[in-house]
Known about the structure:
EcsC, mainly alpha, globular, 10 helices, EcsC family protein
Amino acid sequence: xxxxxxxxxxxxxxxxxxxxxxxxxxxxxxxxxxxxxxxxxxxxxxxxxxxxxxxxxxxxxxxxxxxxxxxxxxxxxxxxxxxxxxxxxxxxxxxxxxxxxxxxxxxxxxxxxxxxxxxxxxxxxxxxxxxxxxxxxxxxxxxxxxxxxxxxxxxxxxxxxxxxxxxxxxxxxxxxxxxxxxxxxxxxxxxxxxxxxxxxxxxxxxxxxxxxxxxxxxxxxxxxxxxxxxxxxxxxxxxxxx
Length: 242
């Protein structure tokens, strides 16, 4: 095993432990606070966020042909991950720029940031999957990406649940229904909305929206990229490639 693979294994073990840890007291308090804040946020804002998430989910499950990338073959893990990190960096910079522009534009442009950021995250996930050698033409691979999304942007309780699905992906994917309408996208969008609301609502505040948009989008895309890398590393390990 190369030094690089040893480093990847160590990082993967730490990530797996984080995904399976029990919710902290602080996390439970934060969730309660989030629910209270959600009740104060205007209904219009919730509707925009929910619609954006719903459209993303449908696009990934039903209309992903435009986002499909050919699976990359005949590359080592270091070669693949060098490419993956470069794409994550690209999307972080793009997301930060977009967040700064929409954050400086007041309420209407601030609301526009949600679907724009969602689109960037979708594209990033499709690119990462392809670079690890997986074809997203199979809808089950797109479901896997939705699980990756949940691991990045959900409560710790939800993470623990979803982690079990991807930890034994061959078994779970074989049990997925042929009818993809049965995917639980409602829970998916509620978890994401609750996770992201607190940080993104500040982007709508005049005077600080641009700064918040830059930092928030940069960190959220970085978090998704890091989660996706470890999820696919776990697939590679299960398949005997790592």
